[in-house]
Amino acid sequence: MTASVLRILAEDPDREWTRVQLKMRAGLKDVSHSLGRLESLGWVSVEKRRVLLPGSDRSLITNFYRVTGEGVAEAKERTGDGGGGGTEPG
Fold this sequence. Notes:
Blueprint: H1 2-11, H2 19-26, H3 32-40, E1 44-52, E2 59-67, H4 69-79
Helix pairs in contact: 1-3, 1-4
């Protein structure tokens, strides 16, 4: 599960994803554990931002996830695009 989330993030390294977007793309109920694991390994960065709710004066803080250079390299290793085998995190 963690490897599939990493693969999705690495497909477009310039894109920022929300947790909901990643859940829908991965077809999983929850990606929190995977994102936490990837962040602890330094393969994903998280930025918290205040987002205005559409049609409202209210806002909420949303986490935006982006793969790091190390995460892209690891994803390439796992798919055979970069040589070695890598190890499955968690």
